[in-house]
Design goal:
Blueprint (H helix, E strand, L loop, with lengths): L2 H31 L3 E5 L13 H6 L5 E8 L4 E6 L7 E7 L8 E6 L7 E4 L8 E6 L12 E9 L5 E10 L2 E12 L2
Antiparallel strand pairs: 1-2, 1-10, 2-3, 3-4, 4-5, 5-6, 6-7, 7-8, 8-9, 9-10
């Protein structure tokens, strides 16, 4: 095989691989848009861990109060998440593609009550149509710091799209600190 032909085949394979990666990233971004709408905290017997046993979450477990909302904004280019809206613990996460028209990775910035903003990247190996896993971007200073921060966000959407389990994983001093898990039901 000639060098020119080998180079051509290598370039073609790289283009195909890049196109598949872009398609996977855009598909995963599409999974985030399925979360659009308002969510309430499931009843106490459906919750796990301590995140819903104290603070503002405890007051709205099992009620019709909105505990999480997702809104697709910017002509579809961003998904805005608000956790515990209207409370002292309200937090927001903004999800978006690095380049919407040629999406090669899904990114997020979490605006936390810890008063920091970790940047996360979608883990394509673990994510699919109903599981969205974002991990801290290890090229950023905060993700490598000793400061307590959200290091991972996991959204698990039920097959009928009406139940959501979300886990925020905190790290401190470079190690797992805790998981804060919430179970939500889509507000009807």
């Amino acid at each position: 095989m000639s060098a020119a032909r080998t180079l051509f085949l290598l370039c073609a394979m790289l283009l195909i691989e890049t196109a598949w990666a872009a398609s996977d990233a855009l598909d995963n971004y599409g999974a985030l848009t399925k979360l659009n709408g308002n969510w309430v905290l499931s009843p106490a017997d459906k919750q796990e861990g301590g995140a819903t046993k104290k603070g503002p979450a405890a007051d709205i477990v099992g009620t019709s109060n909105i505990a999480m909302s997702f809104k697709v904004i910017g002509k579809g280019s961003t998904v805005q998440e608000n956790l515990l809206p209207g409370t002292a613990k309200e937090m927001a996460t903004m999800y978006h593609c690095d380049k919407f028209t040629n999406c090669s990775k899904v990114q997020a910035t979490h605006y936390c009550t810890k008063q920091n903003q970790p940047e996360l990247i979608l883990d394509e190996d673990k994510s699919n149509n109903n599981l969205i896993v974002l991990t801290c971007d290890m090229t950023t200073a905060l993700c490598n710091s000793a400061e307590s921060h959200i290091h991972k966000i996991t959204h698990e959407l039920s097959e009928d799209n009406n139940h959501l389990k979300t886990t925020y994983t905190s790290y401190k001093n470079g190690e797992h600190e805790k998981n804060s898990t919430y179970h939500f039901d889509r507000k009807q």
